[in-house]
């Protein structure tokens, strides 16, 4: 097929996609990504040329950095291009032959790529479910769910225009809560003495830190998916504030462990160098100075509004829900520590690979006749029998750091 159509990277848009997905890039080139979208929208062959180039970069590529960059270009084009592009990338052939194929077990994909692909499939299925011409992705999504594949929790996907304003508004509201928490953390560290801090006060400080850290993780994921410059600037500024507060927190925590002299004021720690985490050791004192500071802090906490407290609890609950990718507690711990796909997920992906009936030559997938209804029914029956013999959960041991070749 490539012999007849030529090198996908030889077209103007293909050349830019090749540049935007090269492994030598330190990070995403957003200016180039937007230029690619403009070229797709302004030329007749732009959508087809772009899809061919993206497919070439993803299919059979063991350089997972290039694959991740190609997925970023793909997502950016879906958000900024119209129907002519959407109808090409939401077909069953593209979803199965390009996206799902990239995370089959034989490719040994890293967890971040595995979840990224599943998130894209899920987001597109939700966004295009009501468009009759774009429901190929919906069919694949439903098939994968019936096979037992668990999809990651979605956050600020940005694919459904009607939902985007609500999501942005919600994100801004959460930022206000985070800023309030950061201010509270700063005030506490300025008033508390690391040597005489009470256990209850330290637990509250740790809770605030945990909430803010979870929100920082969400910010890091959300920034590349946003197009509103002011909101991006606001998120980055908040991220800087978090880093400053976290540095102070780690130093405060370290002073508790080391039992340093309390005359040093915590608000002087503004160096943003990375510091190792230290376990907090509680220290108490019966002096009147400690009682006075504790009473002042308790008074401050008593004045917290109910809504703010509810926001903190809500964020904690959301952070907990986001960590449950497959809902199986035994697999969760190993997955978080090793970055690998749990046994049950890997087994499902093995079955999906058999279902796709892949050839060793990845470039030949377009010539296959697809899967018949009889074959698919047979697969589902085999899958049901296999479910009864599922082994106990344990994590696989491959290292994600060696994923990128």
Automatic annotation (TrEMBL):
Keywords: Protein transport, Transport. Residues 166-254 form the GAT domain. GO terms for biological process: protein transport; signal transduction. This is Target of Myb protein 1-like. The keyword Kinase does not apply. Residues 20-152 form the VHS domain. GO terms for cellular component: endosome; membrane. It holds the Pfam family VHS. SMART domains: VHS. GO terms for molecular function: clathrin binding; phosphatidylinositol binding; ubiquitin binding. The keyword Protein transport applies. SUPFAM superfamilies: ENTH/VHS domain, GAT-like domain. PROSITE patterns: GAT, VHS. The gene is tom1. Belongs to the TOM1 family. It comes from the Eukaryota.
């Amino acid at each position: 097929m490539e012999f007849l159509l030529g090198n996908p990277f030889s077209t103007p848009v293909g050349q830019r996609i090749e540049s935007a997905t090269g492994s030598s890039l330190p990070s995403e080139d957003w200016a180039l990504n937007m230029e690619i979208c403009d070229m797709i929208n302004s030329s007749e062959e732009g959508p087809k040329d772009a899809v061919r180039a993206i497919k070439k970069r993803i299919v059979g590529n063991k350089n997972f950095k290039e694959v991740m960059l190609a997925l970023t270009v793909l997502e950016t084009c879906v958000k900024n291009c119209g129907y002519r592009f959407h109808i090409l990338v939401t077909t069953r052939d593209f979803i199965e032959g390009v996206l799902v194929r990239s995370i089959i077990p034989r490719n040994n994909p890293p967890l971040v790529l595995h979840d990224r692909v599943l998130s894209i499939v899920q987001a597109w299925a939700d966004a295009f479910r009501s468009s009759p011409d774009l429901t190929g992705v919906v069919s694949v999504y439903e098939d994968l769910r019936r096979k037992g594949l668990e999809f990651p929790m979605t956050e600020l996907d940005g694919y459904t225009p009607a939902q985007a304003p609500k999501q942005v508004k919600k994100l801004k509201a959460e930022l206000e809560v985070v800023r309030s928490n950061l201010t509270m953390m700063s005030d506490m560290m300025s008033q508390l003495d690391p040597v005489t801090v009470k256990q209850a006060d330290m637990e509250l400080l740790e809770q605030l830190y945990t909430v803010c850290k979870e929100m920082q993780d969400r910010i890091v994921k959300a920034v590349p998916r946003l197009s509103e410059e002011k909101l991006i600037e606001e998120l980055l500024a908040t991220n800087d504030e978090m880093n400053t507060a976290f540095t102070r927190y780690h130093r405060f925590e370290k002073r508790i462990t080391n039992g340093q002299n309390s005359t040093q004021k915590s608000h002087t720690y503004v160096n943003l160098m990375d510091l190792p985490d230290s376990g907090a050791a509680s220290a108490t004192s019966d002096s009147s100075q400690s009682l006075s500071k504790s009473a002042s802090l308790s008074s401050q906490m008593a004045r917290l509004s109910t809504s703010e407290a509810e926001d903190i609890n809500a964020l904690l609950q959301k952070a907990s829900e986001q960590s449950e990718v497959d809902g199986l507690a035994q697999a969760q711990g190993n997955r978080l520590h090793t970055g690998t796909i749990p046994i049950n997920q890997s087994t499902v992906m093995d079955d999906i690979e058999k279902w796709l009936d892949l050839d060793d030559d990845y470039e030949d997938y377009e010539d296959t006749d697809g899967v018949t209804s009889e074959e698919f029914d047979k697969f589902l029956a085999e899958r049901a029998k296999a479910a009864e013999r599922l082994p106990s959960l344990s994590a696989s041991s491959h290292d994600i750091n060696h994923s990128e070749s």
